[in-house]
Amino acid sequence: MTRSRSHRKGKEPIADLSAVETEREYRVELPQEGMRADKFLKLRTPWMSRTKVQDTFDEGRVLRNDVPCPAGRKLASGDILKLVLPKPHEDISEMARIPYEIIYEDDVMLVVSKPPHLIVHPTGGYRYTTLLNALHLKHRGEGDNAPRLVNRIDKETSGLVLLGKTGEVTGALGQALADKDVVKDYLALVEGRVERDHQMIDLPLGQNTDSQISMLRRVDPDGDSACTEVWVVQRLGRFTLVRCRLHTGRTHQIRVHMQAIGHPLVCDHHYGIRDELLLSDLDEPPPAPTKIESPYGFKDGDTEVDVNDRIRSVDTQKRHEYEAICRGQRVPRGPDALLLGRCALHSHYLKLKHPLSGAELELVAPLPRDMEGAVAAIAAKHTEPA
After folding, report:
1. Cα–Cα distance, 367 to 112 (Å, whole number)
2. What whole-number distance in Å separates Cα of residue 169 and Cα of residue 355?
3. Contact by Cβ (8 Å): 185, 348
4. What are the residue numbers of the active site?
5. What's the CATH number of domain 23-84, 3.10.290.10, 3.30.70.270, 3.40.50.720, 3.30.70.60?
6. Averaged in consecutive runs of 10 residues, what is the pLDDT profile of the chain (386 residues)?
7. How does strand 148-149 pair with strand 109-114?
8. Which residues fall within 8 angstroms of residue 131, CB to CB, at 6 or more apart?
9. Residue 170: CB atoms within 10 Å
C-alpha cells in the first residue's frame, strides 16, 4: 500500500502507520524549479543523511514521472518525484501482537501503559513494530481519529503514554504539557541510600558534547533550565525507590538529575554504574557491577542494516527475558540470575484536565512485574522505613 506524501491543498490526512509503506511521492513546486533531484529529495526528507539520499539514487529507487531519475537531473515545476522504499526488515505480523494496556480511552483521547523494550513511534530500524503502529492498527478504519502522540518515553522506560485522537485535542493536550498543567510522576529505583525525604533538583541540562551519542545530556550551566522534585518512597539498603515529578520536560532529565546528586538509576547504561541487576548484587559484600561497553556489540565497519538487525535482535532477547521475569521464571546468568535488565524508570502517574469536558483525570500505572520483583527481592534482603 502507498501512503502518498505529495503536496495537497487543504488539510493533510494523518498517515496510517499500520499500512506497509511502499513508496512516497513529492511534487515539485515553482520555487524548486531547476533544483537538482538529489538536493530536492534531501530537502523533502530532512531525516535522511546525504549519503543515504545518494544511495537511493544509486539503487535506482528514485523515479521522476515514473522514469528512473539520476541524482543530477534538473527538475521542473509539476514533476512528481517518487521514492521507492525498501522492503521492511521487520516481521510485520508482530504489529498485531505488541502488548500495551489501555488505562483510559474515550472518543478524543487515549492513555496507554507500555511495557519496557518497546519503541513508542517509528524511528531508526523500527518502522512498523512500535506502540504507535499497534495503536493505528487497533483504530484502523476510523479515518483521521487515529492516535497521535502527545508525550514520549524512552524504549526501556515503562508506563503511561498520552495520545490524542484528533488534531485539535492533540494540540490542546500538548499545550497543557507546555503550560505545565499536566502532573507527571515517575517511579525510579536508584543506586545508594537517598538521605533527604524530599528535595528539588534544579540543575540546567545541555547536550553532552563529549559523547558521540547526540541524545545524551549532562548538567550544563549554559543549558536549559530543568527541575525535578523527588520524594523517597522506600529505602532498601544500598538502593532507594523514589518518586520523581517533572516540572520541566528535558531529554533524560530524571536520569541526569539523579546521577548528578550521586544516585543514578539502576541499570541505566548511559548514566549508571551497571547494565543488569543480578541476584548476587544483593549479597554482602556485593560483586563489581555488570557493565559492558555496548549492549548491542557494535563493531567498526557495521552497515546500517547490520546495526538495525543487531538492535532488533538484542531488543527481542531483552523483551523475552522481561516477559519471563513477569511470569515468575528464573532468567539465568550462568550460576546467577537476572533481576532487572533495563533502566529502572516507570511513568507512574498523570493528572490533567480533559481537553473538552474539563473534568480532572488522575491515571495510574502500577509498577510492572520486573521492577516490582526487583524491589521485593531487595526488600527481602534489607529494607528501612521511609
Report:
1. 14
2. 6
3. yes
4. 154
5. 3.10.290.10
6. 38 77 93 96 89 93 96 96 90 93 97 96 87 94 86 96 96 96 98 98 96 91 97 97 97 98 97 96 92 73 76 91 96 96 97 97 97 96 65
7. unpaired
8. 98, 100, 112, 114, 118, 119, 120, 121, 161
9. 21
